[in-house]
Amino acid sequence: MSFWEYLGNRHQQLFADALQHASAVLQCMVVATLLGVLIGVVTYRSEWAGNFATLTTSGILTIPSLAMIGLLIPIVGLGVAPTVIALTLYGLLPIVRNSIVGLRGVDPSLVDAAKGIGMSRLTRLVKVELPLAWPPILTGIRVATQMLMGIAAIAAYASGPGLGNVIFRGLASLGSANALNQVLAGTVGIIILALLFDAAYVLIGRLTISRGIRV
C-alpha cells in the first residue's frame, strides 16, 4: 500500500489523532504561558531571582522527555495527566526567559512617566510594561510551541493522546506492510500542525503588536 493510499484509508483516524495532538499542545501552552509570564513578572526586578527562575526551568528542559513521563507515571498514572504535566514544564523555559528579558527591556523613562501620572504598580505593569514586553514574550511562546509539538509525540509512551500513537505503532511493527506509512503519517502530521500553529502566532502578532513596536 502506497503512502497516499494509506492516508486515504486512515484519514479519519489520523485527523482525530491530529486534533487530539493539537488540543493537548494548545492547552498545555495556555497553562505554560500563564505560569511563565507570572514567574517572569515576579522575578524580573531581581537579578538573583531572574537567574534562579531561568536556571530552574533550564534544568527541567534537560530531563529527557521519556524519563520525565516515566517518572510521572507512578505518581499520576497513565493517560492525559503525565502528558499535560510534562508538556507544561517543558514549555516554561522560553516563556520565562523571554518574559524576564522583555520586561527588563522596557524603557525606564516610560515607566517613570506612567508613575508620574499616578498609575499604580499593577496598572503600570498591565498597561505599560507587559504590552511593551509582549513581542519577546510571543516569540518565547512560539518557540515553546514548536518544541512541544515534537515532545508531545512521546506522550504515546504513557498512553497519551496525539499523533505519537501512530508513530509508536509504526515503530512497534517495523517490517510490516504499513509500518513506514504510519511513522511517516505521524511525522508529517506533526510538522503540518507546527506550521499551522506558527502561522497563527504570526497573525496574533500582527493583531496585537502595534506597528511602532514592531519597527
Automatic annotation (TrEMBL):
Residues 18-201 form the ABC transmembrane type-1 domain. The keyword Ribonucleoprotein does not apply. Its main location: membrane. It is found in: Cell membrane; Membrane. CDD domains: TM_PBP2 (cd06261). The lineage of its organism: Bacteria, Bacillati, Actinomycetota, Actinomycetes, Kitasatosporales. It is a multi-pass membrane protein. This is ABC transporter permease.
